[in-house]
Amino acid sequence: MRRRIRGASIPILFVALWEAGSRAGALPNDTFSRPLDIVVAGARAFTDGSILIATWQTIEAALAGFAFAASVGVLCGALLGLAPRLERIVGPTVDALRPIPAIALMPLALLMFGFGLTMEASVVAFACVWPVLLVTIAAVRGIEPRLLELARTLEMPFGSSLRKIILPAALARIVVGLRVSVGVSLVVAITVEIVINPRGLGYGMIIASQSLKPDLMYAQLLWLGFLGWGLNEALSRAARRWPGAQP
Amino acid sequence: MRRLRLVSGVGAALFAAALLVLWQVLADREFISPVFFPTPTRTLAELYRQVAEGTIWTPLGATTLRMFYGWVLASLLGVVIGAAIGSSRTAREFLEPLLEFTRPLPASAIIPAAILFLGLSNAMSISVIAFGAIWPVLLASVHGFSSVEPQLLEVSGTLRLTRAQFIAKIAAPSALPDILAGARVSLAISLILAVVTEMQASQPGLGHNILLAQRSFRSPELYAGIVTLGLMGFVVNQGILKVEERLLGWRAPGQP
User: Fold this and answer.
1) B27 and B56 assigned to the same domain
2) Which of chain B's residues have a Cβ under 8 Å away from the Cβ of A209?
């Protein structure tokens, strides 16, 4: 109980000071906008559905990029994990590409795909593929060698040994990489929207701030905070369900 | 063993070279659009021109400085707050819920708010960088300060160290490896956010340059910028690894 009170005390104090300050006129309204106004703006955005549409646009792009990155990362990772010689040959090229910030590819993606979903999803995919790829390589390499021998003895084709032996044996560790990537996907999607792509929550915030509606901008920021927090909670719950999936 | 390494090294170089040659040929013959994929030689020529004419240094320096200031600010704040939370339960109870809520927030999402307060300025971009880059250091230093070895706790009890002495002499050195590992992640984030804020707020730097190159369809320049940023990410990471090695030289090798 004491923990709860202490934890809530700083945010409550902060909001109370903020409200009091703007009522007294000490805080300029065009940058601080009163907490009550923020709640009202948020409620309005929810009732007319605009914030939900924007949220869906963001999540759609994040999911599309993540799904693409996850499939490419797991497939290539499994392949490279099984063939250490190939991995030694391809590895340095991967290491050379990895430090490129995904954000730096944003202008390139814009040049290639124009504004819209594809461009955003492709940047998300580039950012998300590395954690999955690296974790999958490590996980597949850590598979008990006898299991692989079994697959060879049974003369399984690659497809079914991937499905029946390799992925199940490596799954618990691959999930760790996927978890990191899900977090990355939301962050990158929002960033792309804030910087160039005119869709989704990120763009909504930029527009609200530029058209001098700070209350709406803060409402969206809060909502985004809840989304990120919810995603984080859901992922760590899922990780607790999967024994061995903790990083 | 040594021979095997040599063979795979040559193989790796050949693979990378083959990809580049393939790209060169495809773009030269215009199988892939040279607007989107200019030939690697054109990108290299552009990079060479920038280095020869010296035009690369100003934006490179601006981005590096911005990244560095943001990172230093994030590291200082992260270590101080992390030390407070890691060594005092009261501080933890007051601050933790707030931090749990702000941490998953994408750092770029506070750009619109930061612009409202600070305008399109260097201060805006440094504060956004600091906000985004603080978490790895903060979490690492919370962990480092709260997991001091029990034996060391007993030692400090026996020596009757004051709290300040305990933090300076025992907790800080034992948290240092965690903090440095966190600082390395923070530096990578700082570089990304430096580029993001440059693009969003038109601050001079590499990020702004590649956006300008894209807008005027100067794709070799765009690629040259991307290559520079990739190299910068690599160099920065290697550099801090070296610093880490040097600072942690007193630890027995092989210790986690």
Assistant:
1) no
2) 112-113, 115-116
